TrEMBL record:
The keyword Hydrolase applies. It comes from Siminovitchia sediminis. SUPFAM superfamilies: beta-lactamase/transpeptidase-like. InterPro entries: Beta-lactam/transpept-like, Glutaminase. One of its GO terms (molecular function) is glutaminase activity. The gene is glsA. The keyword Transferase does not apply. It catalyses: L-glutamine + H2O = L-glutamate + NH4(+). Substrate binds at S65, N117, E162, N169, Y193, Y245, V263. Keywords: Acetylation, Hydrolase. Homotetramer. Its EC number is 3.5.1.2. Belongs to the glutaminase family. This is Glutaminase.
Length: 309
């Protein structure tokens, strides 16, 4: 798909890239540590097929936590909100994405929202299909449809690297298994979750997925409703309240659009009814969000009055 390089966007990227030096590439998943901290790209995709970009928008990143919005949509389609929200809550935590702290404070045990790791692990557990392989065979085509690219696949090296080192996520899972929120073999769930997080997309494809959410679940090319409107809106609401973890409040004030970050350095943005944004900038701030990516969104939001508030 052709995407027009736009000079104003190039200027913003150049300026935002100067902030990358204040961030750090994630390395708690060892294979992510190989990323180039200076990379920064952005694609913006509009409903009529128009696309503008700056930087290397073909370069691949893994979805990481951005996948949590997609699995949430799938599970809500599978089971409906009433069942899903028996197992996971709707409230922001103000804690880091991998925090275990608040899990012990709710009785019965229930992760506060589906965007933190504890909540996302429950959501992945709830994907219908039985075995990890069967569930993954439902999830991957869903991502391919959202991104409109049947070739999207998993970065096996990053999936394996996370699988081998996910001690904290295993701890969250065992806590939740003890409390009967998760009822499956934890290694099986970790296998599925780490493959989910290692699905690889480019900024262009990320912007395409963001656009579907911006359009309340409608595929911009076919006009088909690929996510029911109420579910797409619910996912976008979580992006606003919890999408940037314990930086979501500041992000809402300074930028004001639904967005979801991942530790690979991706940010997916959905400007309601207008366009989808895909950003890749692997240097992260101390909350695990792309430091240059957020700067870039700040500049764009100010310049184009993107805030929905
Ligand atoms: O579970 C993890 O820790 C990673 N696979 C995903 C975390 C993540 O992307 C947090 N985002 N900023």
């Amino acid at each position: 798909m052709a995407c027009r390089s736009k000079s104003e966007l190039n200027e913003f990227v150049k300026e935002a890239r100067t902030y990358a030096k204040y961030g750090k590439v994630a390395d708690y998943i060892p294979a992510l540590g190989k990323a180039n901290a200076n990379d920064l790209s952005i694609a913006i995709r509009y409903p009529d097929g128009e696309c503008i970009s700056a930087g290397d928008v073909e370069k691949k990143m893994t979805l990481q936590s951005i996948s949590k919005v997609i699995t949430l949509a799938l599970v809500l389609m599978d089971r409906g909100p009433e069942e899903v929200f028996k197992y996971v809550g709707m409230e922001p935590t103000g804690d880091p994405f991998n925090s275990i702290a608040k899990l012990e404070e709710t009785t019965p045990a229930k992760p506060l929202n589906p965007m933190i790791n504890a909540g996302a692990l429950v959501v992945t557990h709830l994907i219908k299909g039985g075995s990890a392989d069967n569930r993954f065979e439902r999830l991957l085509p869903f991502v391919q449809t959202l991104a409109n690219n049947p070739a999207i696949s998993v970065n096996e090296e990053i999936a394996r690297s996370e699988f081998e080192t996910s001690n904290l996520n295993r701890a969250l899972c065992y806590f939740l298994k003890h409390h009967r929120v998760i009822n499956e073999d934890i290694e099986e769930l970790m296998d599925l979750y780490t493959r989910q997080c290692a699905i690889e997309v480019s900024s262009l494809e990320l912007a395409r997925i963001g656009l579907v959410f911006a359009l309340d679940g409608v595929d911009p090319e076919s006009g088909k409703q690929i996510i029911p409107e109420d579910i797409a809106r619910l996912c976008k609401t979580f992006m606003v309240t919890c999408g940037m973890y314990n930086a979501s409040g500041e992000f809402a004030i300074k930028i004001g659009i639904p967005a979801k970050s991942g530790v690979s350095g991706g940010i997916m943005g959905s400007v309601p009814e207008k366009f989808g944004i895909g950003i890749f900038g692997p240097a992260l701030d101390d909350k695990g969000n792309s430091i240059a990516g957020i700067k870039l969104l700040e500049m764009l939001s100010e310049r184009y009055h993107l805030s929905m508030f």
